[in-house]
Every structure is written in C-alpha cells, then in structure tokens.
Amino acid sequence: MAEEVARNGFSVKMVFVGKLEDIEGVNASFPIIRTRGLYENGTLEYLRENLS
User: Fold this and answer.
1) pTM
2) Which domain range does residue 44 map to?
3) How far apart are CA 49 and CA 47, in angstroms?
4) What is the per-residue pLDDT across 8-49, written as a single tens digit (0 to 9) for each?
5) How far from 2 is each of 8, 14, 48, 52, CA to CA, in Å?
6) Number of folded domains in the chain?
C-alpha cells in the first residue's frame, strides 16, 4: 500500500514492526523505519517515541 501511495506523489514513511527477514531485499522509494520491538511491542514503542 505504501508503494502505491508514494507512486501517486504523496510523501510516505513506513514503520515496520515485523521480522527483518520479511523485508530483506525490499527496494522502497521511501524510508522504512524499524523498531526494536516486534509487532504490538514495536507499535507501542513507535507511538510512545513519536506521539506526544
């Protein structure tokens, strides 16, 4: 979905909270931010650090 949004001219920043091997080799045209925690822990980590 992020690729399509970027392709339509919007600025995209993707937050990835899964396992690294799931995105290995992905050539994205936008930054992919990874969290230390996985899945729900990664989601909470990102929200705590970036929404205040």
Assistant:
1) 0.84
2) 2-50
3) 5
4) 999 999 999 999 999 999 999 999 999 999 999 999 999 999
5) 10, 7, 22, 24
6) 1
